[in-house]
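Okay, any thoughts on this one?
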Amino acid sequence: MNKKAVVLLSGGIDSSTTLSIAKAEGFDLYALSFDYEQRHSRELKSAEMVAGAIGVKKHLIINFEMNQIGLSALTSDIEVPKSQISNLKSQIPVTYVPARNTIFLSMALAWAETLEAADIFIGANAVDYSGYPDCRPEYLRAFEEMANLATKVSVEGRLRFRINAPLLYMTKAEIIKRGIEAGLDYSLTWSCYDPQPLDSRFKIQDSRPNLAPCKKCDSCIFRARGFKEAGIDDPLLSPFEQSG
């Protein structure tokens, strides 16, 4: 019997690489994405493309209005900080969405229990990231412990859940190299927190939404730095080349 895994998939570098790692480890993949009225909902198109390219058993997109209960620059008109990396030691940036990973992991846990899938994968990273508290290793360990206290299959001793975060201690450059080794096409992924309308001087080569990365938010900066340190050109940028 094939192993099953529920994988949180935003469509970004980290979650897409995590999906490719789970695939390489022989899991049957059940990808879970969320439309929570985020400013950067363009990522959902990338999640669909990545899921299709890697070959998942099923891809669910759950819809709910996070902007009704969680104030963040990603779910409101608060300005997304630009051209700077947040001071991770002194503050959590305004792009933090309250309890987002707890909500996402809880839904993943519910689906995993239904599927009787012991493994849940998340692309959390504690190296090149924006300082979100729900990406830390101690948080993930605590959630795993909770998962095995709060579910029928675990209480009955039929299944023990594992929260897998294979990228937790990797730099963005290491993550990108790992994904390329697994055959992941990073042109399908999306990172920008503040997508911009596509300038008429540029051209899109496929049916993706006509939006371009801002190149100035935390997520864009981490992405650019990761590709630079990996010594690789970012293939996402090629569709936005000037048409002359």
Summary: The radius of gyration is 18 Å.
